[in-house]
Amino acid sequence: QNVLRMLAPGRPELCDGRMSRILMVVMVVLGFITVFVNLGVLTRTIKILRRVHNPKPAFYFIGNLALSDLAIGLYVIIAFLLHLASGKLIWGNEGCLLQIAVAVTCCQATIFTILLIAVDKYLFITYCLQYSSIVTTRRVWVAIALTWILALLI
Questions:
Q1: How far, in Å, CA of 59 to CA of 52, rounded?
Q2: How many distinct helices (H) and strands (E) make up the chain?
Q3: What does the alpha-carbon distance between residue 116 and residue 128 come to, in Å, rounded to a whole number?
Q4: How far apart are the C-alpha atoms of 135 and 109, rounded to whole Å?
Q5: What are phi and psi of 4, to 5 degrees?
Q6: Average pLDDT over residues 79-85
Q7: Alpha-carbon distance 107 to 115, whole Å?
Q8: Rounded to whole angstroms, how far apart are CA atoms 30 and 38?
Q9: Rounded mean pLDDT, 6-32
Q10: Among 71, 69, 45, which Cα is nearest to 57's?
Q11: What is the maximal distance between C-alpha atoms in the chain?
């Protein structure tokens, strides 16, 4: 409530009963920044993975992180633009649950990917000589698939 009073003094004009229009516009702008930055990272990662004969596993993880963050940015843009355009809550309970599910899934995929990056760095430092045999491309793909499966299950 204090944030709303600061952003819209007096009586804030709310779109859905929870957030002022000014805050929604800020969220849309942040969503666009997130999308453009992660599109750049994803594009660069794909170029690296195509050019390098034996790419490092970290590039796969960075690409997956950019993909999940890109999905969050797109979700924010779509959800808040629809709220701003309608001026009210446009979805019922099912739509609200779907929005929460999309947001939680993308955020969980991001968190799990950061965990994979940390484990990858730990394995590289701890098992430097055996790293190439422990962390294979196939295992990296399986780990990435598991992050999305776990995120969807949550």
A1: 11
A2: 6, 0
A3: 17
A4: 20
A5: -65, -40
A6: 75
A7: 12
A8: 12
A9: 63
A10: 45
A11: 64
